[in-house]
From TrEMBL:
Any one Gene Ontology molecular-function term assigned to this protein's record: zinc ion binding
Protein name per UniProt: Enoyl reductase (ER) domain-containing protein
Coiled-coil stretches noted in the UniProt entry, renumbered to this chain: none
Requisite cofactors: Zn(2+)
Xref: SMART domains: PKS_ER
Organism: Sulfobacillus acidophilus
Domain named Enoyl reductase (ER): residues: 10-336
Amino acid sequence: MKAMIFDGVGRPLRLEDVPIPEPGPDDVLVKVGAAGICGSDIHIAIEGTTVPSHVPIILGHEAAGTVALYGDAVKDWRVGDRAAVLPDVVCGNCVNCWNGRSELCLKRQLIGIHRDGALAEYVLAPARNLVRLPDGVSFEAGAIATDAVATPYHALVRVGQLHAGETVLVTGLGALGLHAVTLARVLGASWITAATHHARAGQRARARGADAVWESPRADQSQMFYDLAVDFSGEPSLIETAIRVLRPGGRLVLVGISEKTFSTVSITVSSLVRRGVALIGAYGAHPGDLSEVLALADSGRINLENSVTHRFALPDAYVAIQHLADKWGDPIRIAILPSLAESIPSALCRPLLA
């Protein structure tokens, strides 16, 4: 099969012919219909801030496609079934897996970071990682749903415990933040404010349902108004703003990781204690989250098709990563389509449904 191989930071991925993986008893081989490009791919291939377990390795942790082959112990999948593939490979036996927190598995591995990923014609995954992809949801939408949509859904619903009628602040408006705005509106938030340093992102947030946009969050934005804040930026200034504007008893969920995340965030502990503010980290998603997201997309309650703004052929995967890193063409999410003969770096193409 054709695959894009990563073997070092700053080096273009190279196209190679490699053997098609063979499923173990509990595995499923998926023919990739689409693979999403994510910030993690930038961290690995360009920045070097995320280090894969080994090189060479096939990157790509957002995938959707059709079942091509499966192991002897797999009972629920058949050749040709449409599926989205969660990237978190879990053990199923640790305390977190037992308690329904498989996204925090103590032995967690990630497809595209610890195992070969989806920037290839086929990807191998445990059967438990597959979630059925409705016929009305494209491969591109299914692929980005595995992370760029399931992750904010998990942060809002499972971790943030969002209830209808609550007020929400979303900080950081990349793909995850924009999808958080979309989801918060659908889930019944009474007021949504989106905070960003980028005017174009603010415009997109308004189009997705934000009631207000802070394009330059400031220290004087201190009204304690919000029940829930979710940060997707990892930027200390935005995190500090979020803490200030939470009401007593409010919750701040931290999702974003960036180079700035390792800077100091100024927090007055007594203020958190006296206001009863909760700070919680959220990571990834589990199959139930993805299944619920895909149901929302299939029902038409959320539109994921317009989130894929650029589509690239497999040999151009490194160019696609550069596009996302440098924001060339103002992308939201980028999809790699192994079946595509020529890249289409624009939003003016139809989603691939079959």
